C-alpha cells in the first residue's frame, strides 16, 4: 500500500471556525490532490499540487485554500467552515503524468 | 469539458452472476482510462487501467476494454463474489496536468 496518511480521520466543528486537514505521504510523489466526496457527485477536485509551493485550483475550490511547504505534506484549510463543507475529504498522490492515483483513507468532516 | 458517465446504481446481483457496469466518456484528446474501487470506509484503490485504444485492463477477474469508437470503458466480471460488494468509479486522465475526472460511482451489492 502507498504510504499516505490523513489527519484527523474524523472531525466535528462549528460553522465559522477554521479547519485544517493534513495529508502526509512517504512515497516522494510529485503530485498531490484534495478531493471531496458527496453522494450523487462522486469525487470532485478541490485543489492540487504539482510540486513544493506549486498549487492550483480544482473545480470546487471556493472556500478552500492549500499549502505545500514540503514534498510530503499537503494541507487543506477551510478558513471559515460552512455546513455545505460537510463531506468526506480524500487526499491522493501520483508520480507521473496520466498515471494512477493513490488515495488516503479519508477524513470525515461535519460542520454543525 | 471532459466528463465520465456511469450507469446509475445500486446494482444488486446474486453470487456468481455476470457483472457489467457501463462507462462512457467525453474527452478532447486521448485519455487514459481507469476503474477504481472503494470498499466501505476506505479510500479508492486502482482496479485496472488502459492507456490507449483497444487496450484491455484486467485485475482480480475484472476486465475493461478501451473502445475509442464508442468512447466506452465498460467493466465486466464473469462471476461476482460477495467480497466484490463496493462502489466502482470510472475515471479518465488527459493531458499533462495530472488531473483525473471521475464518474459518480456505481454501488454494487452481491448477495449470497
Rg over CA atoms of chain A: 13 Å
Order of secondary-structure elements of chain B: EEEEEEEEEEEE
Question: Helix fraction of chain A?
Answer: under 10%
Head-to-tail CA distance between termini of chain A: 34 Å
Shape of chain B: globular
Q: Please estimate the helix content of chain B.
A: under 10%
Q: Residue ranges of chain A: pLDDT <50 for 5 or more in a row?
A: none
Calculate Rg of chain B over CA atoms: 13 Å
Helical stretch count of chain A? 0
Run of helices and strands of chain A: EEEEEEEEEEE
- The portion of residues forming beta strands of chain B comes to over 45%
SS field, number of helical segments of chain B: 0
Mean pLDDT of chain A: 93
Number of strands of chain B: 12
Q: Describe the biggest sheet of chain A?
A: 7 strands, mixed
Can you give a write-up of this model?
The complex is a heterodimer of chains A (112) and B (112). Chain A has strands at residues 4-7, 10-13, 19-25, 31-38, 42-51, 54-57, 64-70, 73-78, 87-94, 102-103, 107-111. With 112 residues, chain A is mostly beta strands. The termini of chain A are far apart. Chain A is globular. With 112 residues, chain B is an all-beta fold. Chain B has no helices and twelve strands. Chains A and B meet through strand 5, strand 9 and strand 10 of A and strand 6 of B.
What is the topology?
The complex is a heterodimer of chains A (112) and B (112).
Chain A: E1 4-7, E2 10-13, E3 19-25, E4 31-38, E5 42-51, E6 54-57, E7 64-70, E8 73-78, E9 87-94, E10 102-103, E11 107-111
Parallel strand pairs in A: 2-11
Antiparallel strand pairs in A: 1-3, 3-8, 4-5, 4-9, 5-6, 7-8, 9-10, 9-11
Chain B: E1 3-6, E2 11-14, E3 19-21, E4 23-26, E5 32-38, E6 44-50, E7 56-59, E8 62-65, E9 75-77, E10 86-93, E11 100-102, E12 106-111
Parallel strand pairs in B: 2-12
Antiparallel strand pairs in B: 1-4, 3-9, 5-6, 5-10, 7-8, 8-9, 10-11, 10-12
Amino acid at each position: 500500500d502507498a504510504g499516505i496518511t490523513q489527519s484527523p480521520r474524523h472531525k466535528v466543528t462549528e460553522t465559522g471556525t477554521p479547519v485544517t486537514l493534513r495529508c502526509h505521504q512517504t512515497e516522494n510523489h510529485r503530485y498531490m490532490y484534495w478531493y471531496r466526496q458527496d453522494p450523487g457527485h462522486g469525487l470532485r477536485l478541490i485543489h492540487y499540487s504539482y510540486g513544493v509551493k506549486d498549487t492550483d485550483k480544482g473545480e470546487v475550490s471556493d472556500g478552500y485554500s492549500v499549502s505545500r511547504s514540503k514534498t510530503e505534506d499537503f494541507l487543506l484549510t477551510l478558513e471559515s467552515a460552512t455546513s455545505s463543507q460537510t463531506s468526506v475529504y480524500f487526499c491522493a498522490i501520483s508520480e507521473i503524468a496520466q498515471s494512477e492515483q493513490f488515495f488516503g483513507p479519508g477524513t470525515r468532516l461535519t460542520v454543525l | 469539458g471532459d466528463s465520465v458517465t456511469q450507469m446509475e446504481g445500486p446494482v444488486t446481483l446474486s453470487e456468481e452472476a455476470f457483472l457489467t457496469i457501463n462507462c462512457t466518456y467525453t474527452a478532447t484528446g486521448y485519455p487514459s482510462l481507469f476503474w477504481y474501487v472503494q470498499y466501505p470506509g476506505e479510500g479508492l484503490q486502482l482496479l485496472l487501467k488502459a492507456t490507449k485504444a483497444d487496450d484491455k485492463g484486467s485485475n482480480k477477474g475484472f476486465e475493461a476494454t478501451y473502445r475509442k469508437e464508442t468512447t466506452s470503458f465498460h467493466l465486466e466480471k464473469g462471476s461476482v463474489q460477495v467480497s466484490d460488494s463496493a462502489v466502482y468509479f470510472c475515471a479518465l486522465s488527459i493531458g499533462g496536468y495530472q488531473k483525473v475526472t471521475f464518474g459518480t460511482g456505481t454501488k454494487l451489492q452481491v448477495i449470497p
